[in-house]
Design goal:
Layout lengths: L10 E4 L8 E8 L4 E4 L4 E6 L9 E6 L2 E2 L3 E4 L6 E2 L1 E6 L2 E6 L8
Antiparallel strand pairs: 1-2, 1-7, 2-3, 3-6, 4-5, 7-8, 9-10
């Protein structure tokens, strides 16, 4: 599996697809399929059977996964999309914003 530069909890902007331009927090990262689920983006309608949480069942809006190449990390300093770099500091790999040079971890 490849090392991904986006982690759970990161703030990202969607750069391609139906939700293009939307920003949100990463809820889940799937390393096997290289996909992420972004809060409030790529919403799809799912038909759900009745259960204890939703006794009526019906149609529910949920977030669908997006390929990781279609999202970019948002720079914490300038609030603009940026590429992510990796460098070793004190024997540990740290992520940093290529735009501002600020550490992300």
């Amino acid at each position: 599996m490849a090392k991904l530069k986006i982690k759970k909890g990161d703030n990202v902007k969607i750069i391609a697809g139906n939700s293009k331009g939307t920003t949100g927090r990463v809820l889940e990262v799937n390393r096997k399929t290289n996909r992420v689920i972004v809060e409030g983006a790529n919403m799809v309608t799912k038909h759900q059977k009745p259960d204890t949480q939703n006794p009526d069942g019906g149609r529910v809006e949920v977030e669908a996964p997006i390929h990781i190449s279609n999202v970019m990390l948002v720079d914490p300093k300038s609030n603009e999309p940026t590429r992510v770099g990796r460098k070793v500091e004190d024997g540990k790999i740290k992520r940093y914003s290529k735009k501002s040079g600020q550490l992300l971890d």
